[in-house]
Write a structure and sequence with these properties.
488 residues; 6-stranded antiparallel beta sheet; mainly beta; 8-stranded antiparallel beta sheet
Length: 488
């Protein structure tokens, strides 16, 4: 069995992913037209300036300009050389400017993430060469202006393919200060062309595919059928995708945007992009064919027959009951709200799931509220099954009663319960009374290699549409992929 990660590991991974991208998603404005052992080297005086020598660059600057750095702000080894210099505010806490210079010999995938995070199109960059370049340190770089947590931010970046290196500079604060240009003018980047060739871009790579598979879990034979998505969905976001199904229509939330697909039993065929006024993470479908969309800091909206039918301010994340008359508004703690819709009004009442410490997912079916989260007693991540009034019915756990990984979808089946465990990459089964039956590994059941189970939805025939993100074998892209799961 795979090593079990605690829920805190998931939050840490999500936090690290957010830290990488948050800086660039607030209106970046790119210009466009056509670790090993640390080896901190002491500065060397060079004329009127101070020169820092590293394996991958040299930087000469004037200390009289006010630039300072701590020992921990300089890192240098054979594959990565990085420094963060600061212009402190005189007599105050904080800084006028923080300037990071980083050159790393690494795979190209971080740089390709930078491109999309900071407002560039990969195809226009690589094929059309559509962006102006600015020389910095002897390397022609893309330039992007944006903000970082409310502060102005300027970035320079590029990929030096022959050296297998990524060049990245980030100046946060008053980057138009003349001392910034003066600092960068003293940078010389040294990279050796080793004949490196980067792997394929997403349009050059081999799309994901899989053959039908079956796995025995207890007395059940779980079977998977890959459902091609036309056209395949490329994403940089590992976690936040969701699915809902009404009849022969499947709806996918991809990177906050809603897409409708025709489901014919063997594939998901793209039908349309549905334009929304905000980005959404949560989607529910009720028995009338109405979709419910929610996200923290956004209104709860309903959507049917190609049009928005209602909007409600106030709730956080929301999961609706299949009746469409009530749901639960939740965030991360056990203090939630049951919301009831009547006569166009939204009423709320407290609903506290006292057995839960940190809540990660909440799902609702006809008879149950499933709260997925860490147990208040410290016993790990579990699924707490409540009735519609919030009374605990049972707790679903691992074979020995300990915690699971991170459940992202769960539903009642004819014979018990089925869950998709994202952290463990397993499909887990329990009996009707909550007795653990067993699990199927993603590789055995789906033919995947370390995917993230994003979520699922019940199909009309009782099978399950399971969606997950998976890196292609040639590492050209991460795809959102779908499977039909049956046999439970």
């Amino acid at each position: 069995m795979k090593t079990k990660f605690k829920l805190s590991c998931l939050f840490l991974a999500a936090l690290m992913l957010f830290s990488l991208t948050a800086c660039g998603k607030d209106n970046p404005e790119p210009s466009s037209t056509s670790e090993g052992t640390e080896q901190t080297k002491p500065p060397v005086e060079a004329g009127s300036g101070t020169t820092i020598h590293t394996n991958l660059w040299d930087l000469t600057y004037d200390e009289a300009d006010g630039w300072v750095y701590e020992e921990d702000d300089l890192h240098d080894d054979e594959t990565s050389s990085k420094i963060i210099l600061t212009l402190p505010k005189e007599g105050e806490d904080g800084s006028i400017v923080d300037a990071e210079i980083r050159v790393s010999v690494e795979d190209p995938y971080t740089f390709r993430d930078y491109l999309t995070s900071y407002g560039f199109d990969e195809y226009e960059y690589a094929v059309d060469q559509a962006y102006d370049l600015t020389p910095v340190g002897g390397i022609d770089c893309l330039k992007a202006e944006g903000n970082y947590w409310g502060s102005p931010c300027l970035r320079y970046m590029n990929r030096v393919e022959g050296a297998g290196a990524t060049v990245f500079m980030e100046i946060i604060g008053e980057y138009e200060d003349e001392r910034v240009d003066k600092l960068l003018s003293g940078l010389t980047i040294h990279l050796e062309d080793t004949g490196n060739e980067d792997g394929p871009w997403y349009w050059e790579g081999e799309p994901f595919s899989a053959q039908p598979r079956s796995v025995m879990v207890g007395t059940h034979t779980l079977s998977s059928q890959w459902l091609p998505i036309t056209d395949c969905i490329i994403t940089k976001e590992t976690f936040n995708h969701a699915a809902a199904v009404t009849g022969d229509q499947a709806y996918l939330l991809v990177d906050g945007e809603l897409k409708r697909f025709d489901y014919d039993g063997a594939s998901l065929n793209f039908a349309e992009d549905i334009v929304l006024d905000a980005e959404y993470e949560d989607i529910s479908a009720d028995t009338t064919g109405t979709l419910w969309l929610a996200n923290f800091m956004e209104p709860l909206i309903s959507w049917k027959d190609g049009a928005q039918t209602a909007s409600y301010e106030g709730p956080d994340h929301v999961t609706m009951h299949p009746s469409g008359t009530w749901g639960v508004s939740w965030f991360s703690g056990p203090e939630c709200e049951k919301i009831t819709l009547s006569g166009g009004a939204l009423k709320t009442e407290p609903m506290v799931f006292q057995e839960v410490d940190i809540l990660s997912h909440l799902l609702i079916d006809d008879s149950h509220i499933y709260v997925c989260g860490s147990a208040v007693d410290g016993s790990g991540h579990k699924v707490f099954v409540y009735d519609s009034n919030g009374a605990l019915q049972m707790t679903l756990a691992d074979s020995d009663g300990s915690g699971l990984g991170s459940v992202t979808f769960i539903t009642q089946t004819a014979n018990g319960y089925l869950a998709l465990d994202g952290n463990m990459r397993e499909v887990v089964l329990w009996t009707k009374d909550g007795t653990y039956l067993g699990e199927a590994d993603d590789g055995d059941l789906f033919g995947t290699d370390y995917p993230w189970f994003c979520g699922g939805a019940k199909l009309a025939d009782g099978s399950i549409l399971a969606i997950m993100t998976e890196d292609r074998a040639d590492e050209s892209a991460m795809e959102l992929v779908a499977f039909k799961l049956s046999g439970f």
